[in-house]
């Protein structure tokens, strides 16, 4: 079976004091190739943990990840990662960062050069390719991270709050870029975010997770990502369904947070 | 005490003069100068170059002024040189008293001196004559030429009219006169406030020494050979230490087994100062070159090991994760992520290690060596050649500082991203 299967994943962290945290409990999901999934949920509900398991950085206590028919054992070039920040290599130029994957695979400049330059064009960093990383703004750095991930041509792209550290305006532009890249490349993308709007805009499918233990609460199929490919994201946001969905999900997360707070108060009392 | 007070006075005076006067002309116009909160913002505290220059000039001025340097226009009062005298009053056993004068010629040490001709005078106590070098003192057996000596029961009861007991002393215009417990006199001319050259030679003497030793050498080697040998030992010891320590540190940062195996050794050796190893190294390897290289190797080894280990643990885990997700192998991650990312730490460690090595080589040469900066000043100190000692100390400081500056320049070149991620 092609696509990405998350099969009955549970994750339990044993704490040094003898207790444990059930970060994820029995999470299952299947993504077809080319699907765009955004994941929402209150803080601490296990989103990062889930992504790290899919990426292969963590082994789940139960369940398994299957990509295109084979089980995931560890990190691999088939699953690219885009982190919130701090994952670029400061000692390399922008271009060397982007060409890192192909170079590590032993490919030659003649072979990957065109592709890398094309990607730099797509993310609008053609004029910055010889610059050092620390000379770029936060938004530019995230564009480098995106380009670097794409240059490696992974089957699945995993993003953990990739736009979380950016200002609202840059963020909006980057959302457009992510949608454009998704349509052009046809990659399977999993994107974690804290912003309900972002999750609606960038989620062909949207997963709302609930905490303690981390689990899937509700799943949506949304039309907005497809709409956003063709038109201005601000127009999409004006769509009546968009506003209604936003309120619905905000309310859902709000209830979860209240429940957590209530439980914390009980525990404290 | 007085030099210290002067130093503080110059510090304060220069501060006000520069702040109120010269500062207006050299106002800086950049981002930091626009910061209004500077007290407590360490990044806004930049060394005032005026203060640095005045600080160095002040040290040389005080040095010159208190050593009578020809290069400095003002001097602290020097030691008394010339002829002077004081009178003592001797009392015979029968109670009779008589005054006699002691004529003194104070001369510059090293200069030729002749005793002045004097008239012995009358009474049972006769006038005496002595010559004393500046800054020195002299025991005067005043009764040698007297008619009634101490054996006969004569004793001193007053100096320049001031009564005095054996064991006591009197400050006269001519200087300090003490009566020893045995009844003889000990004379010390006024020292002034300058330092004696054997304690602290004037700057020009030190400079003259540099020229002399640079061309003629000292203890069979020229100055440059002495310094060159010290530097050679440091560089060789450091390179060997880094060549072993850096890979070891990486191994400790990457492998459980290496970490477990070497942790006790490194943590044990870290607090042992290299100087404490000198005796053992001398026993094992003798005082030749190999002993010193081994010592410096050990001094650099632990520092570089710890720096490399810290460099590995300082790697942001997301960078390593990113590299794995981009398909890099372990070797590629070591080569392209861990090593470059640890370079800033390695450089910091290297600077520390070079400093420690430089200090250690000088100390080791002080203990035993045939050549080297430390040996040069050690031998010179045995012969009271203070100018060579001071010259050596200054050159050791300058070279140590120079090494550090070289490292900082190399750092800016090789790790431009340091502190900017
Ligand atoms: N290494 C760990 N050891 C112990 N507990 C952990 C560890 N990593 C995560 N947890 C716990 O697992 C739960 C889920 O953490 P996770 O980081 O996945 O949350 P998240 O949904 O990404 O939160 P946020 O939105 O704040 O990033 C949290 O309760 C956290 O305390
Ligand atoms: Mg998270």
From TrEMBL, chain A:
Leader sequence residues: none
Keywords, alphabetical: ATP-binding, Cell inner membrane, Cell membrane, Membrane, Nucleotide-binding, Translocase, Transport
PROSITE patterns (alphabetical): ABC_TRANSPORTER_1 (PS00211), ABC_TRANSPORTER_2 (PS50893)
SUPFAM superfamilies for this protein: P-loop containing nucleoside triphosphate hydrolases (SSF52540)
Domain annotation ABC transporter: ranges: 4-236
InterPro entries assigned to the protein according to its UniProt record, in alphabetical order: AAA+_ATPase, ABC_transporter-like_ATP-bd, ABC_transporter-like_CS, ABC_transporter_ATP-bind, P-loop_NTPase
Taxonomy, superkingdom: Bacteria
SMART domains with a match to the protein in the record: AAA (SM00382)
Annotated TM spans: none
GO molecular function list: ATP binding; ATP hydrolysis activity
Protein's UniProt keywords contain Cell inner membrane: yes
Family, per entry: Belongs to the ABC transporter superfamily.
Protein name (database record): Taurine transport system ATP-binding protein
Organism: Lutimaribacter saemankumensis
Automatic annotation (TrEMBL), chain B:
GO BP term, pick one: alkanesulfonate transmembrane transport
InterPro entries: MetI-like, MetI-like_sf
ABC transmembrane type-1 domain segment(s): 227-407
GO cellular component, as recorded: plasma membrane
CDD domains, A to Z: TM_PBP2
Alphabetized UniProt keyword annotations: Cell membrane, Membrane, Transmembrane, Transmembrane helix, Transport
Family under the similarity heading: Belongs to the binding-protein-dependent transport system permease family.
Pfam families linked to this entry: BPD_transp_1
Organism: Lutimaribacter saemankumensis
Name of this chain's protein: Taurine transport system permease protein
Entry function: Probably part of an ABC transporter complex. Probably responsible for the translocation of the substrate across the membrane.
Transmembrane segments: 6-22, 231-251, 271-287, 294-312, 346-367, 388-410
Keyword Transport appears in the UniProt entry: yes
């Amino acid at each position: 079976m092609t696509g990405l299967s998350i099969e009955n994943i549970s994750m339990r962290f044993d704490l040094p004091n003898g207790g444990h945290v059930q970060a994820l409990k029995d999470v299952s999901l299947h993504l077809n190739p080319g699907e765009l999934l955004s994941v929402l949920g209150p803080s601490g509900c296990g989103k990062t943990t889930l992504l790290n398991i899919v990426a292969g950085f963590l082994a789940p206590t139960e369940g398994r990840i299957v990509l295109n028919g084979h089980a995931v054992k560890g990190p691999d070039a088939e699953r690219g990662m885009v982190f919130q920040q701090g994952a670029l290599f400061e000692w390399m130029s922008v271009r060397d960062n982007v060409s890192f994957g192909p170079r590590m695979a032993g490919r030659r400049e003649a072979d990957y050069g065109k592709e890398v330059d094309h990607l730099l064009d797509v993310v609008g960093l053609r004029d910055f390719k010889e610059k050092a990383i620390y000379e770029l703004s936060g938004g530019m750095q995230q564009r480098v991270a995106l380009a670097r991930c794409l240059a490696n041509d992974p089957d699945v792209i995993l993003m953990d709050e990739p736009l979380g550290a950016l200002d609202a305006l840059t963020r909006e532009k980057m959302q457009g870029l992510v949608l454009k890249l998704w349509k052009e490349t046809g990659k399977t993308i999993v994107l974690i975010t804290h912003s309900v709007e972002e999750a609606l805009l960038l989620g062909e499918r949207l997963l709302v997770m609930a905490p303690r233990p981390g689990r899937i609460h509700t799943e949506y199929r949304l039309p907005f990502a497809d709409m956003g490919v063709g038109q201005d994201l601000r127009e999409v946001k004006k769509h009546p369904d968009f506003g209604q969905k936003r309120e619905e999900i905000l309310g859902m997360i709000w209830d979860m947070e209240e429940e957590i707070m209530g439980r914390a108060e009980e525990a404290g009392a | 005490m007085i030099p210290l007070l002067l130093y503080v006075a110059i510090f304060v005076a220069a501060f006000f003069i520069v702040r109120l006067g010269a500062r207006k002309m050299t106002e800086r116009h950049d981002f930091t100068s626009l910061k209004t909160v500077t007290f407590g913002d360490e990044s806004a505290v930049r060394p005032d170059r005026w203060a640095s220059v005045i600080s160095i000039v002040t040290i040389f001025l005080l040095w010159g002024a208190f050593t009578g340097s020809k290069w400095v226009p003002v001097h602290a009062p020097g030691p008394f040189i010339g002829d002077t005298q004081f009178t003592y009053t001797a009392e015979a056993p029968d109670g009779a008293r008589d005054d006699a004068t002691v004529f003194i010629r104070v001369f510059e040490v090293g200069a030729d001196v002749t005793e002045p001709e004097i008239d012995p005078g009358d009474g049972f106590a006769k006038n005496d004559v002595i010559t004393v070098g500046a800054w020195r003192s002299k025991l005067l057996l005043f009764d040698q030429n007297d008619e009634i000596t101490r054996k006969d029961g004569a004793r001193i009861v007053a100096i320049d009219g001031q009564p005095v007991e054996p064991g006591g002393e009197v400050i006269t215009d001519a200087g300090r006169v003490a009566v020893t417990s045995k009844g003889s006199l000990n004379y010390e001319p006024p020292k002034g406030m300058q330092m004696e050259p054997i304690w602290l030679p004037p700057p020009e003497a030190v400079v003259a020494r540099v020229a002399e030793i640079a061309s003629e050498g000292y203890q069979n080697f020229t100055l440059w050979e002495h310094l060159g040998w010290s530097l050679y030992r440091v560089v060789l010891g450091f390179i060997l230490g880094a060549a072993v320590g850096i890979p070891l540190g990486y191994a400790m940062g990457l492998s459980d087994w290496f970490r477990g195996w070497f942790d006790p050794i490194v943590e044990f050796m870290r607090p042992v100062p290299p100087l404490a190893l000198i005796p053992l190294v001398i026993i094992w390897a003798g005082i030749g070159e190999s002993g010193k290289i081994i010592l410096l190797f050990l001094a650099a080894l632990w520092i570089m090991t710890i720096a490399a280990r810290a460099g590995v643990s300082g790697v942001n885990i997301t960078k390593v994760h990113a590299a794995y997700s981009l398909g890099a192998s372990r070797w590629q991650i070591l080569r392209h992520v861990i090593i470059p990312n640890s370079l800033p730490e390695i450089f910091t460690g290297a600077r520390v290690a070079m400093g420690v090595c430089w200090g250690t080589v000088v100390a080791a040469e002080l203990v035993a060596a045939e050549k080297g900066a430390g040996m040069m000043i050690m031998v010179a100190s045995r012969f009271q050649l203070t100018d060579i000692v001071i010259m050596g100390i200054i050159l050791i400081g300058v070279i140590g500082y120079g090494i550090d500056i070289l490292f900082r320049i190399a750092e800016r070149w090789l790790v431009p991203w340091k502190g900017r991620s």
